[in-house]
Amino acid sequence: MAGHSHSANIAHRKGMVDAKRGKLFSKLCRAIYVAARNGGGDPAMNLRLRYAIDKARSVSCPKENIERSIKKAAGELGGENFEEVMYEGYGPSGVAVLCEVLTDNRNRTAGDLRRAFEAAGGNLGATGCVSYLFAYKGLFVVDPKHTTEDALMEVALEAGADDVELVEGYFEVTCDPKQVEAVRKALEDAKIAAESAETSYIPSNYVDLDVDNGKRMLKLRDLLDENDDVQNVYANDNIPEEVLAG
Question: Can you give the residue ranges of the TACO1/YebC-like second and third domain (predicted)?
Answer without folding.
Answer: 82-236
